[in-house]
Structures
1.
Amino acid sequence: MSIFGKTIIHMVSYFLGIDSADTQVTVAEGECLKAFAQGKQNLVEIGVYEGATTRLLADQLDNEAKLYAVDPFIPGRLGICWGRIVAKLEINKSPHARQVNLIEKYSHEALVDIPNAPDFIFIDGDHSLEGIMRDWADLAGLVSSGGIIALHDTRIPNHNPNVANLGSYQYFESYIRHDNRYDLIH
């Protein structure tokens, strides 16, 4: 079956309540994100996809906190970005939906829309080497003192050894891991 056919089946299943929003964040990773996001006031997520992690982060917000969720939501063959539709529906399921600012831009274009000192940044956008290099250069210096930068696909899980081929993993191993501005938390 083509990717187009799989997308249509997933969308219909999602709208019927059979499927959940797709995510590549594991349950354990989600629990880790929840723990580190709690109590934070200015959160940034790079890479929304279908909004499953956006909703998870939104659910951790207190009444004064803001979440800036960044994704360009590139339209597919029919000129529609199904992920954008699902993401908006997922965000609206959160009791803190009004505190989520969905920024429909590439991360480097969204910098003007992100607050000066976010205290939590989750980078899960462009996994190419160029993409993670740019995101790290643009965002690492923005995080507030004592803030958290969480990165996805920087370790090789047993269920997916192909992560080793991703720029996010390669750049983490060659540069981010050795960036002495930050303490590494596993």
Note: The chain has a mean pLDDT of 94.
2.
Amino acid sequence: MQLKMQKERKKVDKVVFDSEERAFWRQRRPGQPNALDEHIQKTEKKLKKCTLQGYRQQLERLRLSLKTKPWLKAMKASDTMVSWCEQFQDYDPFLAPSQPSNPWISDDTSLWTLNTDNVEVPTERRVKRWGLSVQELVRDPIGRQVLETFLESEFSSENIRFWMAIQDLKYSPNCQIECKAQKVHDEYLASGALAK
């Protein structure tokens, strides 16, 4: 009988009846007392209290997702940054106390005197920092002098001089680049150059 009635209805009536039925079941959905309440699964998720084990599992899932996605190299970058910070923490005045005392706190300026660019004997801490990377050695003026002295004994001091000339060229103003590039070419790269 219902089938017969449904066939006889017009298309517009069918659409109205269908939407009324959906609204009826949306309001009186089984297992939910009120149509305005949240879905049961959502409230269950809120009720679950995360334990230490739950947080550890979530952390492991996130780490695994970082490792399995090749386009996301954040984990490797963060590991590199952490190891770099651990390596340099002894030389950071905010993290490690300076020896001798900090001149900004006390009136003792011996720290500045020991770390000037023209001191005869570098401090032990300064020499240890040179051992971290060649960049640290070359960045320090005394370290660069020590490296030049060593390279002269090995008959390859032109290597460090060439590198310093290139660094000077790299950070030069635009108006001086052509002149400095020609000077580097004539001194190091041209046939019959003095430092070749």
Note: The two ends are 105 Å apart (CA to CA).
